[in-house]
Amino acid sequence: MRSDKEQNLRAWRDQAAVLQGIVDDAPLDQVLDNLALAAESEANGLSCEIWVIDSALGIITHSAGPSLPEIIRPAIGAKIGESVVSPCALAARKGETTIVEDIESDQRWLGSRWRDDCLAHGLRSCQSQPIIDLEGRIIGSFAIYHRFPDALPRCEPVATMATLFANIAIAHHRNGIASQEKEQQFQLAVECADLGTWEWNISNDEFVWSERCRQMFGAKETKMTLQRFLDTIHSDDRERIADALQTSLHHHNTCKLEVRCVWPDSTVHWIVATGRGVPPCQASERGLWRGVAIDITDRKQAEALAAESVARFRRLADALPEKIFTATPDGETDYLNQQWSIYTGVPLREVLRRGWREFVHPDDLDEKVNRWNQAFKTGTPFEFEHRFRREDGTYRWHLSRAQPMRRADGTVSIWVGSNTDVDDLKRAQFDLRESEGRCRLA
Questions:
Q1: Of 41, 45, 79, 44, nearest to 60 (Cα)?
Q2: For the segment 160-196, what is each residue's pLDDT rounded down to a tens digit?
Q3: Could you tell me the pTM of the whole model?
Q4: Residues with Cβ < 8 Å from 411, sequence gap 6 or more?
Q5: Could you give the CA distance from residue 136 to residue 116 in angstroms, rounded to a whole number?
Q6: DSSP characters for 11-41?
Q7: pLDDT at 311
């Protein structure tokens, strides 16, 4: 028979083995089996059972009991409801310890399959208690079976120890699952956003980036030094990037930079890199700079094409005799061609600041404003004749038109319009009407 010292030493070894399994991320079923065996070895004559329960669904997700008959242990996926009759189920439902001093004579289990199976395998007493996490949720139950009735009081320390270890094992397992799910969600987000990830370890000057990040910068190596990374950057951007790295590392802040990288085929690609410097720990004397990158070359090329299109439009507009303008979807003028300055004698910036209303004849202003407001509110083309003041103060008749330009979804993106001098035509029409009137009178 083992001495108390040997017994204690064996108990410590068993407990250490259980903890080691938890630390090593061993499968939960294995950890729980080892925990049950450790509890059984500490008190001869015991058989232990451990359930793990999904609190939200109320189902059994794991069951351990290596020395118990399989028929006594519940099926994985079974619900902890009235249909599951056992002390473990009762403890899990009510959140309190359930003691059965004599399984054969206890009236609560008469006629139950659990009672008959226990007696058939020589189990005479049972104690089950809930496993409750730090947030007060019931996450399992732990049971001790004995082959003699009324033999449970001396098992209390074993139950307390085993419940504590089971709580730690279940919490660690679930935290690991949650961490894996978060990692999978992060990887999915990175892939869907077409991001590259990277990390610079200052202690050994190792620059590690993901395969997608390597492709963005057109490099061949997966692991690099900082200098070899900077060599992929356009020469005009290197000093700025190096300074940003040092600043972020020093202040432990996040920075976002647009950089140009030059591929081996000499093509230039635009990358947006976002990262944060992690200051070195005094204990490890280690610092990091971590971040993500995304290729915006297509966007930059589209912006360049759009800018060229705008510049071409403005060059064309300046060559036309009409006074050309553009306006935002809400009707605010944002561009005027040079003819506005030539006609009004006022610099373009001043015309934009003062607005076109100042140059419209007072008798025509209210109606034009009303029609213009109605046009951009309804998104319908605008057309109106009014008098417009020239630099010498003379008002000349103009035909003002504007058309809405629409996006793919039908919303207005910009208004494009013109003011055309029709004064000579208006006067000719007036003279013609007067001539016809005189003829009729004659």
A1: 79
A2: 888 888 888 888 888 888 788 887 887 777 778 788 8
A3: 0.53
A4: 329
A5: 33
A6: HHHHHHHHHHHHHTT--HHHHHHHHHHHHHH
A7: 86
